[in-house]
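Section 5: illustrative case.
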């Protein structure tokens, strides 16, 4: 038992070192983001002012609202900024135990996952969010004046960016599951209705139950799911499952 613990100690020390570096990186990037909080917040609020130029300013109703909103925004920006470094630290930890073929596979997965998440986040902020805000702000009128809270708006924006960033991973995950032999290439097309229901529930949860936002988020997710089905047919020539795998291994 003692020998086993001694054998694991180098791995524990290496993991501790990587985690400390990750925490320091997040702390540094979040600190820099907090120092630039006004510029970052103004950049985040720009789509709202473009959607409704008559909006004079955002408000906060509690003494701690503004501070907590800026703090959460800084942490989110710091985490996103430090994400490549976090991936690099994770890679340094697992790479020594991988074969060359496995290293190439992991690098490919990390690269595509990162690019797709960035594409989803950019699509949310520059395409989906402005249109959604324009629709929501169309309800404003001389007799109905919007008074938007800073914290709620930043939370809504962050939720949308994260939701689309994760959603853009759907086709990639579908292809990877098919190529790995975990799922047949026709599984997603045969189970379309259950997956559509799951996507609708996910959109409902991400938008905290707001019906219009749920619909506006669900439609792109449905399109991404269909794109994943097409990608599985094109790129999903993965391994066979079940008995074929065991026969090949034998």
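Designed sequence:
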């Amino acid at each position: 038992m003692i020998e086993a613990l001694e054998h694991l100690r180098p791995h524990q020390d290496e993991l501790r070192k990587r985690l400390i570096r990750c925490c320091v990186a997040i702390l540094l990037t979040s600190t820099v983001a907090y120092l630039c909080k006004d510029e970052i917040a103004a950049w985040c609020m720009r789509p709202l002012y473009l959607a409704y130029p008559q909006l004079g300013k955002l408000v906060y109703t509690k003494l701690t609202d503004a501070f907590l909103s800026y703090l959460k925004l800084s942490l989110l920006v710091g985490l996103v900024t430090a994400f490549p470094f976090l991936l690099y630290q994770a890679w340094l930890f697992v790479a020594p135990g991988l074969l060359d073929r496995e290293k190439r596979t992991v690098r490919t997965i990390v690269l595509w996952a990162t690019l797709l998440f960035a594409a989803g986040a950019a699509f949310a902020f520059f395409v989906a969010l402005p249109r959604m805000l324009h629709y929501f702000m169309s309800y404003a009128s001389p007799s109905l004046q919007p008074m938007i809270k800073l914290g709620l708006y930043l939370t809504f924006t962050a939720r949308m960016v994260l939701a689309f960033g994760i959603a853009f991973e759907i086709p990639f995950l579908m292809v990877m599951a098919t190529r790995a032999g975990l799922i047949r290439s026709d599984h997603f097309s045969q189970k379309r209705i259950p997956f559509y229901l799951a996507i609708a529930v996910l959109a409902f949860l991400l938008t905290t139950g707001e019906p219009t936002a749920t619909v506006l988020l669900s439609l792109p997710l449905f399109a991404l799911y269909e794109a994943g089905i097409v990608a599985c047919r094109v790129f999903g020539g993965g391994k066979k499952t079940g008995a074929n795998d065991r026969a090949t291994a034998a």
